[in-house]
Amino acid sequence: MRKVMIVDDEALVRIGLQSIIDWESRGYRIGGVFKNGEEAVRAAAEEKFDIVLTDIRMPGMDGFALIRELKRLDPSLRFIILSSYSDFEYTRQAIQAGVNDYISKYEMEPEELLRVLDALSVNGERSGVPETAGEAGSLDDERAAWLTRTKEDRDARLSEHCPALLERLGRWGGEARWVVLMPLPRTSDYSQTERKAMALQTEEIFSRLDGLEYFGEQDGLLHGACALREGEQDDSIRLRQIAEELTAAWAKNLNVALVAGAGNSVTFDRLGQSRKDAERAAQMCFYDGAGIYLAEHVVLREMAEQERLELYRQAKNKIDFLHFEQLGDEIRRRIGDPAARLLPAEWQRVGEMIATHLMNLMIERYESDPESLRDRFGAAWPLNEAFRKLGTQAEFVGMLQEMLARAQEAASSLHASRGWVAKAKAFVESRYGEPLRLEDAAEHVSFSPSHFSQRFRQETGEAFSDYLTRIRIREAIRLYNETELSTEEIAARVGYLNANYFIKVFKRMTGQTVKQFKSRS
After folding, report:
1. At which residues is 4-aspartylphosphate found (predicted)?
2. Cross-strand partners of 261
3. I need a labelling partner for 129 at 20 to 30 A (CA). Which of 2, 100, 136, 334 fits?
């Protein structure tokens, strides 16, 4: 497998080159990525490379000086120039200096890059591994295995499982912190391309700073270790400097805010425990946003069972009595108390509990159907899933406020709706024997006739005239069953002055004539 070195002072170019193709599947391995010639020369003095992709115009040691120095170290190296539109004269000089090919770094296509790479003849087709046979592969395997093992077993011992990694970390001292990095959570998740660029940027910075070891990505977090240098009593200043460099790189090149969590400094065999501390520390971004958080300064707790039950009881009580504003105030007070901060997962559970109670209220008390609830709550629907997407305290409080406000609006609307409908129906029940009109019922509930007609149909599913007819025929049936009154008398009692018209309506509503009904009764 050919080993490739990338040298360019532009971070976006370095990231783009690493992600433009699947290098290993095509027979190449990126052995080092450097932002200047000095770094590249130091790396080439320690390990062998096959191909160098380099810019020409760079601060400090330019591409020509780099090529000369690398050729002195290894005459068999092959060079590809990364040129820009204004580099034609430089490119001509580079070819005269023995460069094998060039490619435009701003119009580069994966197929073109592979064509140029594959066309190079590498002496002996060296595998490109460092002098210590198998060291790079062994380290990569151990890093991946260490990530998996410490996820499942926080007490795993580095000395028992990863000797090469232990030896590498041991160059700086005997203790280290686990470090996790992640982008500041947002409602819309980051794309795979964005996450890959974050990983490449992080790996590059870790590779060129002393005391740092990059492990890899797992479950959306980037993992590494920061070794405590021998004789160093306090590494917090150095950690913050590293975090500042990463923050600046992510912000400039990726437009992403960085969150870093650092576990406690421990011996290498206790790094798994430091991982747990680092992951917990990073969760402080829920409250305080982007930044670096050291485990020794972080206090996040789980909610005690009794505390959880009491909060659930209070929340349900306030929802049942429609005290939505009071509930919102209480949750904001609790979540805003810096002396009693809970793990974000606890607030997710609280949010889901409140959402569940709200849905039960809407469905059971107000008989709302899912479609109407979706219209009322918009993006917050389904309510019990809304809090799973939130990554910060501000987002949580914002979603809670919106949800409770919409619940208040829905409850008020539905309550008012049910109130005037009940009032209109009671009016019909007391006046059905009179020459009752839609206008009379509308005036009784202070609606215009057209608005009343439309709203009555929406809320009850039937027209007012159909409802009035149904009540009148229901009463007529009762009178036929319970009295000896004539059809003319019953028609008059239920609001029909014309007995013949009453007989027609009776048949339409019951499917039988008055005579048939009376004979069967």
Report:
1. 55
2. 180, 293
3. 100
Query: What are residue 104's DSSP bridge partners?
Result: 83
H helix or E strand, kind and range, residue 319: helix 305-320
Dump pLDDT digits (tens) for 418-470: 678 888 999 999 999 999 999 999 999 888 999 899 888 877 788 999 999 99
> If 0-12 CB within 10 Å is exposed, 13-18 middle and 19+ buried, where does residue 64 land?
middle
pLDDT reported for residue 125: 47
Interval 340-350: pLDDT, tens = 899 999 999 99
Task: Enumerate residues 6+ apart whose C-beta is below 8 A from 230.
Answer: 172, 173, 174
Residues ≥6 apart with Cβ < 8 Å to 353: 312, 315
- So what's the architecture of 432-520 in CATH? Orthogonal Bundle (1.10)
CATH superfamily assigned to domain 2-125: Response regulator (3.40.50.2300)
What backbone torsions phi and psi does residue 128 show, to the nearest 5 degrees? 80, 10
pTM for the model stands at: 0.60
Distance of CA 486 to the CA centre of its chain: 73
SS3 of residue 402 by DSSP: helix
